[in-house]
Design goal:
Shape: globular
CATH architecture: 3-Layer(aba) Sandwich
Number of helices: 10
CATH superfamily: P-loop containing nucleotide triphosphate hydrolases
CATH topology: Rossmann fold
Strand order of the largest sheet: 2-3-1-4-5
Bound molecules: cytidine-5'-diphosphate
Oligomer: single chain
Radius of gyration: 17 Å
Number of strands: 5
Distance between the termini: 16 Å
């Protein structure tokens, strides 16, 4: 079974995808880490964020096992990631590896922005996880404080709005729900409640497919 979990920044998609993967015994890919990896290496090489040629070359030879996931999740990498994610060459270079991951025997859980629309349109269960920008900023603000990256709330919400806009308006693989995705608004839900809702969606989708 392939399960895709897409949605905007700090909507809770990563946590839900990890928990779904554990629940169903499936491997999990956080596709955002790939774009973060390209952004990170671009900054490390002191290249401009709009240097598409270098970004594409980095994407073609990206090996996430050589990078530290915590360093990739740092706040300064988020913006770089959303810049390189708008480059068609970068997305094309990362496509096959994501599709191979999705199509491995037994299936997989993937989370990101386009996993249900571009990477695995054939997925059995697709979730599109949202929450209000204010709630997402509140969560990211708490997360950054826990990771000792203190930031002002007003900066966090401004960053979230900017990335939402860039991710939704780019011409390649924009952030949008697949037509057959089920929306899950987590604004009022804690992690446990959101997880229960996600399981209910996956089970209902499976049951629906079994009937048809
Ligand atoms: O958790 P958060 O949304 O902050 O970050 P992420 O999921 O790691 O994604 C970082 C950036 O990578 C996003 O802002 C997107 O621009 C980009 N991305 C994408 O374009 N497509 C994906 N499948 C995953 C991430």
């Amino acid at each position: 079974m392939i399960i895709t979990v897409d949605g905007p920044a700090a909507s809770g998609k990563g946590t839900l995808a990890r928990r779904l993967a554990r629940h169903y015994g499936l491997p999990h890919l956080d596709t955002g880490l790939l774009y973060r990896g390209v952004g990170y290496l671009l900054l490390e090489r002191n290249r401009a964020l709009d240097d598409a040629t270098t970004a594409e070359a980095i994407a073609q030879s990206l090996d996430l096992t050589k990078l530290d996931a915590d360093a990739l999740r740092a706040d300064r990498i988020s913006e770089a990631a959303s810049y390189v994610a708008a480059m068609p060459g970068v997305r094309a270079a990362l496509l096959k590896m994501q599709q191979d991951f999705a199509r491995q025997p037994g299936g997989a859980v993937l989370d990101g922005r386009d996993t249900g629309t571009v990477i695995a349109p054939e997925a059995e269960a697709k979730l599109f996880v949202t929450a209000s920008p204010e709630e997402r900023a509140r969560r990211r603000h708490v997360e950054l404080a826990t990771r000792r990256e203190p930031t002002e709330y007003c900066e966090v919400i401004a960053d979230i709005r900017k990335r939402d806009e860039r991710d939704s308006e780019r011409s390649v693989a924009p952030l949008k729900p697949a037509p057959d995705a089920v929306l899950l608004d987590t604004t009022q839900l804690d992690i446990e409640a959101a997880f229960r809702a996600a399981i209910a969606i996956v089970e209902a989708t499976r049951a629906g497919r079994a009937r048809s």
